[in-house]
C-alpha cells in the first residue's frame, strides 16, 4: 500500500483538506479510534467470512469503554459517572463527547470493509439502550442500566416482524396483562433482530392495545434462558457476523415494571430512536462505499489490459469520477447534518431533521450500490471471487441490500422524507400566517 493515500480512501478532512467541523478533540479521538479498532477488529474480514465473532469481543470493547460511543450525543453523563465511566479512550471526558465524535467512531468502525463484525458489538448499545435511557422510569433504569452500560449484560432492539418491517404500526406481537396484573404475557415473533442471539434482553415493540400506532408499547423483554423464548440465527446475504436472529415468544412472562415509559406510547418511542439509527447507518455505509471505490481505484492504477493500465482507459476514469462525486457529495451532507445535531436540541432535531435523516439514509443505499457495482466491474473476474485481490469488492457488494433495507427500506424512506418536509412546511406556513398582525379598523379607501 502506498504511503500517499489512494484517492477517495479517506474523507477529505483526513486527506489534509481544511474543514470547519473538526477541532483538536475530534482529531485526537480519530487517532485513538483508529488504533483501537485496528487492534480489536484486526480479523474482521475473517469473522465475516465464517459468519461469527469471538465470544469475548463484546467484553473487550466494554473493557476499553468503546461501547459507550454508540449512544447518541450528548451522553448520559450522570449515569456514566454513576457506573464509574468518566472518560472514553484517549482521555476524552464523557461530558465533551458530541455528534462529531459519534461520526468519527462510526466511520472508523466500518473502515475494515465489513458491517457485520461492527454490528455484532454496537447495535444493542446504540439502539436497544436509548429507549430505557430516554423514556424509562427511574426504577427501570436502576434495574437495567448499570449492567448494560458496563457491558455485563447485552440488549437488542426488537421491532421488526415477518409482516411488519418499515410498517411499524402493523406490529402483531401482543402483550396482555396476566389475571393477577403482575405480568405482561408476550406472544409473537420478531425477525431480522441484530444481536438477538447473544442478548439478555430486548427493548421490544409490542401491541398492548388495539390496532394502529396507538396500541403499541415498549417492554424490556428477557431473552436468554427465559421460558417461552426460542431464538435461532438467520442466514443473510451480508453482515453475516452480526447475529441476525429470529425470535419466537410463547407466553413469555414479563414483569409489568418492565414497561418502558407509558403504555400506548410505543410508536413515539420507536420513531424517536430512528434518527440516530439512520444516521449511524448512513455513516457506516458511506465508509463501506469509500473502501469499495478506493480499492478499485488502486487496482486500476496497477492492472494492465490491452497493453496499458486500466486507469488509461477513459471509460474507467469516467466510472470512478461518477462514483467519486456521489460518494463525496453524500459525505459532505453527512458532515453538515451531523454538525447540525451538535447545535440543536433533541426535540428540535426530531422535528426538523426527521425527513432529512430518512433521505440521507436512502441516499447512502444508492451510493453504496453505485460504488460497489462499479468496483465489481473494474475488478472484473477478481471482483467475482471470494478471495484474492477483489475479495473486498465482492464482500461489499453483498452488503448493498443490507444498506438499502434495514432501518427503513429505501422507497419508504424517500416517501417519508417528502411527507415530513411537507408537514413541516405546512406547519411553519400556518405559524407565520397566525403571527402576522392584521390591521384593525375599517379602511377609508
TrEMBL record:
A molecular function (GO) term: flavin adenine dinucleotide binding
The Acyl-CoA dehydrogenase/oxidase C-terminal domain, residue ranges: 264-421
A GO BP entry: fatty acid beta-oxidation using acyl-CoA dehydrogenase
Superkingdom classification of source: Eukaryota
Domain Acyl-CoA dehydrogenase/oxidase N-terminal, chain residue ranges per copy: 96-152
InterPro entries in the cross-refs: Acyl-CoA_dehydrogenase, Acyl-CoA_Oxase/DH_mid-dom, Acyl-CoA_Oxase/DH_mid-dom_sf, AcylCo_DH-like_C, AcylCo_DH/oxidase_C, AcylCoA_DH/ox_N, AcylCoA_DH/ox_N_sf, AcylCoA_DH/oxidase_NM_dom_sf
Keyword line: FAD, Flavoprotein, Oxidoreductase
Keyword Ubl conjugation annotated: no
Sequence ranges assigned to domain Acyl-CoA oxidase/dehydrogenase middle in this UniProt record: 156-252
Listed Pfam families: Acyl-CoA_dh_1, Acyl-CoA_dh_M, Acyl-CoA_dh_N
GO cellular component: cytoplasm
Cofactor(s) listed in the protein's UniProt record: FAD
PANTHER family: ACYL-COA DEHYDROGENASE APDG (PTHR48083:SF15), MEDIUM-CHAIN SPECIFIC ACYL-COA DEHYDROGENASE, MITOCHONDRIAL-RELATED (PTHR48083)
Family: Belongs to the acyl-CoA dehydrogenase family.
Name of the protein in its database record: Acyl-CoA dehydrogenase-like protein
Organism of derivation: Hyaloscypha variabilis (strain UAMH 11265 / GT02V1 / F)
Lineage: Eukaryota, Fungi, Dikarya, Ascomycota, Pezizomycotina
